Amino acid sequence: MPVAIITGASKGLGRALALGLAGKGWDLVLDARGADRLAETVALASAHGTRVTAVAGDVTDAAHRAELVTAARRLGGVDLLVHNASALGAEPLVRLAELPLEGLRRALEVNLVAALGLVQEALPPLRAAGAGAVLVVSSDAAAEAYPTWGGYGASKAGLDQLAAVLAEEEPGLRVWAVDPGDMATDLYAAAVPDDDGPRPEPEAVVPGFLRLLDERPASGRYGAAALLEGRR
Protein backbone atom coordinates (compact mmCIF):
# COMPACT_ATOMS: atom_id res chain seq x y z
CA MET A 1 0.00 0.00 0.00
CA PRO A 2 1.23 3.57 -0.63
CA VAL A 3 2.17 5.60 2.43
CA ALA A 4 1.37 9.25 3.11
CA ILE A 5 2.53 11.65 5.82
CA ILE A 6 -0.06 14.32 6.66
CA THR A 7 0.66 17.18 9.05
CA GLY A 8 -2.09 18.98 10.92
CA ALA A 9 -4.31 15.91 10.73
CA SER A 10 -6.28 16.22 13.95
CA LYS A 11 -9.12 18.28 12.46
CA GLY A 12 -10.29 20.30 9.49
CA LEU A 13 -8.77 19.69 6.10
CA GLY A 14 -6.00 17.49 7.49
CA ARG A 15 -8.51 15.08 9.01
CA ALA A 16 -10.65 15.14 5.85
CA LEU A 17 -7.62 14.34 3.68
CA ALA A 18 -6.60 11.52 6.01
CA LEU A 19 -10.04 9.93 5.76
CA GLY A 20 -10.13 10.43 1.99
CA LEU A 21 -6.76 8.74 1.53
CA ALA A 22 -7.63 5.93 3.94
CA GLY A 23 -10.73 5.29 1.87
CA LYS A 24 -8.45 4.90 -1.14
CA GLY A 25 -6.31 2.31 0.65
CA TRP A 26 -3.41 4.52 1.74
CA ASP A 27 -1.43 3.78 4.89
CA LEU A 28 -0.92 6.94 6.92
CA VAL A 29 1.41 8.69 9.31
CA LEU A 30 -0.50 11.53 10.94
CA ASP A 31 0.82 14.53 12.84
CA ALA A 32 -0.77 17.14 15.09
CA ARG A 33 0.04 18.88 18.35
CA GLY A 34 -3.12 17.66 20.09
CA ALA A 35 -2.79 13.96 20.87
CA ASP A 36 -6.42 13.45 21.88
CA ARG A 37 -7.96 14.85 18.70
CA LEU A 38 -5.31 13.12 16.63
CA ALA A 39 -6.34 9.82 18.21
CA GLU A 40 -9.90 10.50 17.01
CA THR A 41 -8.65 10.88 13.44
CA VAL A 42 -6.66 7.65 13.76
CA ALA A 43 -9.74 5.77 14.90
CA LEU A 44 -11.81 7.08 11.99
CA ALA A 45 -9.11 6.39 9.40
CA SER A 46 -8.31 2.94 10.76
CA ALA A 47 -11.94 1.93 10.22
CA HIS A 48 -11.09 1.75 6.49
CA GLY A 49 -8.73 -1.15 7.20
CA THR A 50 -5.47 0.69 6.52
CA ARG A 51 -2.50 1.07 8.82
CA VAL A 52 -2.46 4.42 10.61
CA THR A 53 0.30 5.73 12.88
CA ALA A 54 -0.14 8.82 15.04
CA VAL A 55 2.91 10.91 15.94
CA ALA A 56 1.88 13.85 18.10
CA GLY A 57 4.23 16.82 18.18
CA ASP A 58 5.18 20.17 16.71
CA VAL A 59 6.33 20.27 13.08
CA THR A 60 8.78 23.05 13.93
CA ASP A 61 10.77 20.48 15.96
CA ALA A 62 13.40 18.76 13.81
CA ALA A 63 13.35 15.63 15.98
CA HIS A 64 9.59 15.36 15.51
CA ARG A 65 9.94 15.66 11.73
CA ALA A 66 12.52 12.90 11.75
CA GLU A 67 10.14 10.74 13.81
CA LEU A 68 7.40 11.21 11.21
CA VAL A 69 9.65 9.99 8.40
CA THR A 70 10.93 7.08 10.50
CA ALA A 71 7.34 6.01 11.17
CA ALA A 72 6.58 6.16 7.45
CA ARG A 73 9.63 4.05 6.65
CA ARG A 74 8.33 1.41 9.04
CA LEU A 75 5.15 1.27 6.94
CA GLY A 76 7.15 0.93 3.74
CA GLY A 77 8.41 4.38 2.73
CA VAL A 78 7.02 7.78 1.75
CA ASP A 79 4.92 8.04 -1.40
CA LEU A 80 3.19 11.31 -0.50
CA LEU A 81 4.04 14.15 1.85
CA VAL A 82 1.18 16.55 2.68
CA HIS A 83 2.12 19.71 4.56
CA ASN A 84 -1.18 20.99 5.87
CA ALA A 85 -0.19 22.28 9.33
CA SER A 86 -0.67 26.05 9.51
CA ALA A 87 -0.34 28.93 11.94
CA LEU A 88 -2.07 32.30 11.49
CA GLY A 89 0.41 34.54 13.28
CA ALA A 90 -2.36 36.28 15.23
CA GLU A 91 -5.80 35.16 16.39
CA PRO A 92 -7.89 36.96 15.32
CA LEU A 93 -5.96 38.37 12.40
CA VAL A 94 -4.78 41.97 12.63
CA ARG A 95 -3.43 44.60 10.26
CA LEU A 96 0.30 44.59 9.55
CA ALA A 97 0.79 47.69 11.69
CA GLU A 98 -0.34 45.63 14.70
CA LEU A 99 1.01 42.19 13.79
CA PRO A 100 3.29 40.88 16.57
CA LEU A 101 6.63 39.98 15.04
CA GLU A 102 6.73 36.86 17.18
CA GLY A 103 3.43 35.84 15.62
CA LEU A 104 4.85 36.37 12.15
CA ARG A 105 7.87 34.27 13.08
CA ARG A 106 5.58 31.49 14.27
CA ALA A 107 3.59 31.56 11.01
CA LEU A 108 6.79 31.42 8.98
CA GLU A 109 8.22 28.61 11.11
CA VAL A 110 5.10 26.42 10.84
CA ASN A 111 3.93 27.24 7.33
CA LEU A 112 7.26 27.58 5.54
CA VAL A 113 10.37 26.57 7.47
CA ALA A 114 8.85 23.34 8.83
CA ALA A 115 7.59 22.48 5.36
CA LEU A 116 11.11 22.64 3.94
CA GLY A 117 12.53 20.79 6.92
CA LEU A 118 10.08 17.94 6.45
CA VAL A 119 10.71 17.82 2.71
CA GLN A 120 14.45 17.59 3.34
CA GLU A 121 13.91 14.76 5.82
CA ALA A 122 11.56 12.88 3.47
CA LEU A 123 13.41 13.38 0.18
CA PRO A 124 15.37 10.09 0.21
CA PRO A 125 12.27 7.86 0.57
CA LEU A 126 10.25 10.13 -1.76
CA ARG A 127 12.90 9.72 -4.46
CA ALA A 128 13.07 5.98 -3.80
CA ALA A 129 9.30 5.69 -4.25
CA GLY A 130 9.73 6.28 -7.97
CA ALA A 131 6.54 8.33 -8.16
CA GLY A 132 6.76 10.35 -4.98
CA ALA A 133 4.68 13.49 -4.50
CA VAL A 134 4.73 16.54 -2.25
CA LEU A 135 1.49 18.45 -1.67
CA VAL A 136 1.49 21.72 0.24
CA VAL A 137 -1.72 23.45 1.27
CA SER A 138 -1.66 27.05 0.04
CA SER A 139 -4.24 29.83 0.28
CA ASP A 140 -5.78 32.51 -1.87
CA ALA A 141 -4.15 34.90 0.62
CA ALA A 142 -0.84 33.88 -0.98
CA ALA A 143 -1.87 35.54 -4.23
CA GLU A 144 -4.42 38.21 -3.23
CA ALA A 145 -3.98 41.25 -0.95
CA TYR A 146 -6.59 40.93 1.79
CA PRO A 147 -6.44 43.32 4.77
CA THR A 148 -5.31 41.54 7.98
CA TRP A 149 -4.11 38.47 6.05
CA GLY A 150 -0.62 39.88 5.35
CA GLY A 151 1.50 37.75 7.65
CA TYR A 152 -0.31 34.50 6.92
CA GLY A 153 -0.45 35.31 3.21
CA ALA A 154 3.27 36.07 3.09
CA SER A 155 4.06 32.69 4.64
CA LYS A 156 1.84 30.91 2.11
CA ALA A 157 3.31 32.90 -0.80
CA GLY A 158 6.72 31.73 0.34
CA LEU A 159 5.41 28.19 0.50
CA ASP A 160 4.16 28.47 -3.09
CA GLN A 161 7.59 29.60 -4.25
CA LEU A 162 9.30 26.85 -2.28
CA ALA A 163 7.07 24.28 -3.99
CA ALA A 164 7.73 25.77 -7.43
CA VAL A 165 11.51 25.66 -6.95
CA LEU A 166 11.37 22.15 -5.48
CA ALA A 167 9.54 21.01 -8.61
CA GLU A 168 12.37 22.38 -10.76
CA GLU A 169 15.07 20.83 -8.60
CA GLU A 170 13.35 17.44 -8.21
CA PRO A 171 11.85 16.63 -11.63
CA GLY A 172 11.30 13.02 -10.59
CA LEU A 173 8.68 14.14 -8.06
CA ARG A 174 5.28 15.71 -8.43
CA VAL A 175 5.07 18.88 -6.35
CA TRP A 176 1.67 20.53 -6.01
CA ALA A 177 0.58 23.64 -4.11
CA VAL A 178 -3.19 23.60 -3.69
CA ASP A 179 -5.45 26.46 -2.66
CA PRO A 180 -8.45 24.78 -1.01
CA GLY A 181 -10.57 27.94 -0.97
CA ASP A 182 -12.75 29.07 1.94
CA MET A 183 -13.79 26.30 4.29
CA ALA A 184 -15.60 25.95 7.60
CA THR A 185 -12.56 25.23 9.77
CA ASP A 186 -11.34 26.16 13.23
CA LEU A 187 -8.47 28.01 11.57
CA TYR A 188 -10.81 30.32 9.69
CA ALA A 189 -12.99 30.81 12.75
CA ALA A 190 -9.94 31.83 14.76
CA ALA A 191 -8.78 34.16 11.98
CA VAL A 192 -12.08 36.00 11.53
CA PRO A 193 -14.35 35.12 14.46
CA ASP A 194 -17.02 37.67 13.48
CA ASP A 195 -17.51 36.14 10.02
CA ASP A 196 -20.15 33.46 10.40
CA GLY A 197 -21.11 33.17 6.73
CA PRO A 198 -21.76 29.71 5.29
CA ARG A 199 -18.72 27.87 4.00
CA PRO A 200 -18.20 24.36 2.64
CA GLU A 201 -16.93 21.67 4.97
CA PRO A 202 -13.37 20.48 4.29
CA GLU A 203 -14.69 17.12 3.09
CA ALA A 204 -16.23 18.88 0.11
CA VAL A 205 -12.85 19.79 -1.41
CA VAL A 206 -11.10 16.47 -0.78
CA PRO A 207 -12.15 14.97 -4.16
CA GLY A 208 -10.17 17.74 -5.85
CA PHE A 209 -7.05 16.76 -3.93
CA LEU A 210 -7.61 13.09 -4.71
CA ARG A 211 -7.89 13.92 -8.40
CA LEU A 212 -4.27 15.06 -8.33
CA LEU A 213 -3.21 11.66 -7.02
CA ASP A 214 -5.35 9.81 -9.55
CA GLU A 215 -4.26 11.81 -12.60
CA ARG A 216 -0.81 13.04 -11.48
CA PRO A 217 -0.78 16.26 -13.54
CA ALA A 218 2.38 18.33 -13.88
CA SER A 219 3.82 20.00 -10.81
CA GLY A 220 2.32 23.43 -10.17
CA ARG A 221 -0.21 25.49 -8.26
CA TYR A 222 -3.84 24.37 -8.39
CA GLY A 223 -7.15 25.53 -7.00
CA ALA A 224 -9.43 22.95 -5.42
CA ALA A 225 -12.48 24.56 -7.02
CA ALA A 226 -11.04 24.11 -10.52
CA LEU A 227 -10.05 20.52 -9.76
CA LEU A 228 -13.55 19.78 -8.56
CA GLU A 229 -14.95 21.19 -11.79
CA GLY A 230 -12.62 19.04 -13.87
CA ARG A 231 -10.37 21.96 -14.81
CA ARG A 232 -6.68 22.59 -14.09
From TrEMBL:
Q: Which PROSITE patterns match?
A: ADH_SHORT
UniProt protein name: Short chain dehydrogenase
Keywords of this entry: Oxidoreductase
The superkingdom listed in its UniProt entry is: Bacteria
Question: Which family is it part of?
Answer: Belongs to the short-chain dehydrogenases/reductases (SDR) family.
Query: Which molecular function terms from Gene Ontology are attached?
Result: oxidoreductase activity
List the InterPro entries.
Answer: NAD(P)-bd_dom_sf, Sc_DH/Rdtase_CS, SDR_fam
What SUPFAM superfamilies does the database record attribute to this sequence?
NAD(P)-binding Rossmann-fold domains
Keyword Oxidoreductase among record annotations: yes
Which is one Gene Ontology cellular component term of this protein? membrane
